[in-house]
Amino acid sequence: MNYIISGMKIDPFKLERYFAKYEFSAKYLLSSSDCDGFRMNDILGMATIEEMKLWQNLQLGYTESQGLPMLREEVAKLYSNISSDDMMVLAPEEGVFVALNCILSKDDHVICIAPSYQSLPQVVRSIGCDITYWLPDEERGWYFDPQELGKAIRPNTRLIIINFPHNPTGYLPSLHDFQSIIDIAKAHNLILFSDEMYRYLEHDSSLRLPSASDLYHNAISLSGLSKTFGLAGLRIGWLTTKNHELLEQMMAFKDYTTICSSAPSEVLGLIGLRHKEDLIETNIKKIKRNLSLLDGFINAHSHILSWSKPNAGTIGFARLKIVTPALDFCEGIVAEHGIMIVPSEIFDYGDKHIRLGFGRLSLQEGLDRLGEAFKGV
Ligand SMILES: Cc1ncc(COP(=O)(O)O)c(C=O)c1O
Q: Which ligand 1 atom minimizes the distance to the CA of 226?
């Protein structure tokens, strides 16, 4: 697998290139991190008369760069201490790029959770910063120890990057540990970038953490409609922060990426968020049903797989107990059986794990097929 593209100023995003290769050709997707996308009819079918008017009378000109005010007001309801002025709307992945480019200079040191969604460390590397990876303990259910985070701080550390619920392990820290992370950032006056794309997908809502941006002035939180709300195709997300100096800089940077978000996406996103309970409930029900199917499957194939069952999000990271490296295994399985699974090599995390996704209705079909494939292992 060679993803070198000459002249690129940033290394290729292995996970996205892997998806680009297989997502629309493989028959069974067992590694997706989003829930099935809702249909246009689902969203417009929920709309009130007033919301329908917004949609039908929508003018397709440029939109407000910070984001549609009505959309921002709806987004603010997902937070306890964030108002519609404490945010900007942009595509989630764009949020990673914009925020990290505004926060960092090349002499900064960054502590970044790992394994992780590659853009989090990759954008940091592209700026030229030094990175220390904050690694979890698999034996303790992918536990990220805040003490280890504290030990990694250097005099030039500027930023800590976290992502909970975590891609790819599904790990969600306790409120106590989350607060410890915030306290460490505060004590050392560090910026905290908190990727919260899977927030509101806790399998038990009492485990939901506050947003980092609700708790700490120098935290920037990223969230969006792609995972929790099943609206990835809208490409709508947002950055929230109480740090308005940084917010201004990020808005100015967006003039070089998209300038403003798509008008139809903002209105559809607004309608979706106004009916968020229905969207979240549909997704949580599916996730819980799928999680028990997947857990049963892993237990029934315990000679090949083991995992720490996640308690949040749509994905988990299972250990592959075979000699074949995960990448070879996954490339064989997609070529021979049409089942796409992401290997840990894609996360630069050895060759012994695979990421499994349980946000899609087709999971059972994919598992049946995988069970057949396992007969030959
Ligand atoms: C942790 C994390 N952050 C950010 C993103 C980017 O979201 P989007 O693909 O909607 O831009 C993803 C997508 O998989 C993700 O898993």
A: 10
CA of 300 to the centre of ligand 1 (A): 31
Q: The sheet that has 219-224: what strands, in order across it? A: 87-90, 237-241, 219-224, 191-195, 157-163, 109-113, 130-134
Q: Is the pLDDT of residue 1 over 80?
A: no
Confidence of residue 2 (pLDDT cuts 50, 70, 90): very low
Q: How far is the CA of 227 from the centre of ligand 1 (A)?
A: 8
Pocket of ligand 1 (CB under 6 A): 33, 91-93, 117, 163, 167, 195, 197, 224, 226, 232
pLDDT of residue 8 exceeding 90, the answer is: no
Q: Tokens standing for 224?
A: 């969006």
Q: What is the pLDDT of residue 6?
A: 54
Residue 225 CA, closest ligand 1 atom number: 10
> How far away, in angstroms, is 114 Cα from ligand 1 center?
15
Tell me the CATH number for domain 14-39+277-374.
3.90.1150.10
Average pLDDT, the chain: 96
Per residue in 160-195, pLDDT (tens digit) is 999 999 999 999 999 999 999 999 999 999 999 999
Structure tokens, 105: 């200079």
Locate the ligand 1 atom nearest the alpha carbon of residue 117 and give its number.
1
State the distance from the centre of ligand 1 to the C-alpha of 34, rounded, in angstroms: 9
Beta pairing, strands 339-340 & 28-29: parallel
Domain ranges of the chain: 14-39+277-374, 60-275
The CATH number of 60-275, from 3.40.50.720, 3.40.50.620, 3.30.70.100, 3.40.640.10, is: 3.40.640.10
Distances (CA, A) of 278 to 13, 118, 271, 274, 282: 33, 31, 12, 10, 6
